[in-house]
UniProtKB/TrEMBL annotation:
Limits of the Major facilitator superfamily (MFS) profile domain: 52-467
Assigned keywords, A-Z: Membrane, Transmembrane, Transmembrane helix, Transport
Gene Ontology CC terms: membrane
Lineage: Eukaryota, Fungi, Dikarya, Basidiomycota, Agaricomycotina
Name of the protein in question: Major facilitator superfamily (MFS) profile domain-containing protein
Location of the protein in the cell: Membrane
Organism encoding this protein: Cutaneotrichosporon cavernicola
Amino acid sequence: MSEIKGDMSRTPSPDGGAKEAQVVPVVDIDDGFDPQFVKRTMRKVDWRLIPILIAMYTISLIDRTNLATARAANKVKMDREIGTGYGQRYTIITLTFFIPYIILEIPSQIGLRYFGVRNWLSAAVFLWGIIMICMGFAPNWNTLAGLRAVLGVFEAALFPGCAYLLSCWYPRRSMASRNVLFYTSSAVLGNFATILGYAFSLMNGTRGLSGWSWIFIWFGILTVIIAIIAYFALVDFPDRATFLSEEERHLVLTRIQRDRADSVHDPLTWTKIVKYSKDFKPWLFAWFFMSATVSSYALAYFLPVILADLGFTNVQSMVLNIPPNAWSVIPALVTGYIADKFRHMRAAVVIFSAICIIVGTAMYSQLGANQKVARYAGIFIAVQGGNCNVPLVLSWAQTSIRAQSKRAFMAAVVVCFGGLGGILASVAFNQNEAKKGYRSGVIFTMVINAVTVIGAAVLHFWMRNQNRRAERDSKVLEEDVNFRYQG
């Protein structure tokens, strides 16, 4: 929302405090600031905040999905040594990660403020790096499944923490583009892990360990290194930012206050959690997010099998996994720009991406295409849809609310359902249906994204109606007279 009819909220002082509420007519969130100073300050924020978050989330994506890389690179040995090739064991191992990951999303947000961003997130990354190294020495599939569950405990802190942190630094008109940059960069870089994982697997037999073990060990070591870097590089919330001058900190806080009147921290408590749970919006956005992650996780875990079904070797499958994700950066940046530039088209870009998932899934499966080229093209379209909608839904959700505590709750609930999407992908894409092209999983993915298309359209018209009522009847939205929905 670039124009505000009147600022009825508190305006932050340079030290992060707040003055008494007063009517301050504001034309733009940058009104009164030198444009070059705004640009220079936000560029400084971008460089300090986003690269380290990209590095941390990249290794997060790698570590939660490198089970597929390890099995694709060294399947016969892995199945023989720890018994992953029997029945539903591989599905169980993929699934155990998501149970604690989902349960601990909301509690992790409480710890973020209490312990501080640097301590909380870098410690989480460090600890799951140790777990990754331990996975390389797992003597059986049960141990590997248990370690995957512990991995989910520590990874639960990162993604909702990153989403919440980004929303606290940027006004709504910059949120989609920053989320897209953060997520798609991580997704693309994460896919190069398949090649790196294959290189690690060539150490097969070194020190008596198989290639799949070395994949876990080396990625674990890399995770620990990134955690150490993060401890020194991470920045805290704007009101605690020491890398900014007092004037720069005042700029950041004032822009947030003018945009949505929630620059002042309010802690997330269990009472507020109960209150926010009664709002339908977090749950609807959570569904949108889940529908995108079902597709993304299915391709992350089962794409090597799908490519093998098309006649490609293991090495070819690892290489062919990269181009679809690299391509998805272009439409993701375009849709992110559209969402921020034309802020009442956020629903439109989410709907478009969900349709891409439906069409792409039909194409790469045996439902819609028999030709190898057409099915591989479908993978491009499906990956595009998923990689676009994850950051688009996350940013739309954060622009539809205000108050820092609710922002933390929204991030946790939405990302929590992303974990649920991982469970559903693990179950729906049943290993027993591999020879049938995962028919049940394919149909399920298409159906839940069709529901997203309908739900996003309904939410768009509801938001338009609420905005009209606010203008016509002075209805207060999100407990702020100046707040308007962007859909």
